[in-house]
Amino acid sequence: MLNPVEVSLILAVVMAVLFIADSLRYKESANRVAKQLCIERDVQFLDGTVAFKSLALCWKKRRGPVITRNFRFEFSTNHEDRQRAILSLSTDGTQMISIKQESESPLYNHQ
Question: What is the pTM of this model?
């Protein structure tokens, strides 16, 4: 029979593994979204991947707690520059793109 400390430890390990697996799925989604965005805006998706930036727990009205994962990626408009963007994906399905505007960016100013 397991004592309460052992049960708590096992639960903590299981929850950590599930959280890591979930985070990897979000990173794969962020890669797809960033790559598609760059294709649609005719810019080069640099390094071919996003990088994890931060994690936030938010409370949204009528939805309750929501985990938002922020990823950063870089793109080039002319094969010489390097511009940054942040992609936020939330557990409620919300997506947001923030672009550090160093010049007139096609990601920001798409028509």
Answer: 0.80
